[in-house]
Amino acid sequence: MTAIEQHPRHRLDELLQNPVRFSIVAALDRASTLSFKEVRDVVEITDSALSKQVSLLEGAGYLAVGKSFAGKMPRTSLTLTREGRAAWKAHLATLREIAQGLS
Prior knowledge:
Layout lengths: L18 H12 L2 E3 H8 L3 H13 L3 E8 L2 E8 L1 H19 L3
Antiparallel strand pairs: 1-3, 2-3
């Protein structure tokens, strides 16, 4: 491995480098479960944009999507998985390492 390949940036999670996905996971890290609408409002994006990003994160195993009903109203909940939380913590640790120049 060359010195370039050893730079911590190579350990950053590609999925979490996207600002919207980063923001979604950050919001879910602070709360055990949030509704789709809560995440949409916190991240300030449209339903369709959130749906696309949630699909990518769910496909990677980073979050779980729950479906339920409150009366006749459908409810979608989002929960960070154990794998997602581990990826988030590793990503943040790498960002801190880069920021502190510990490479």
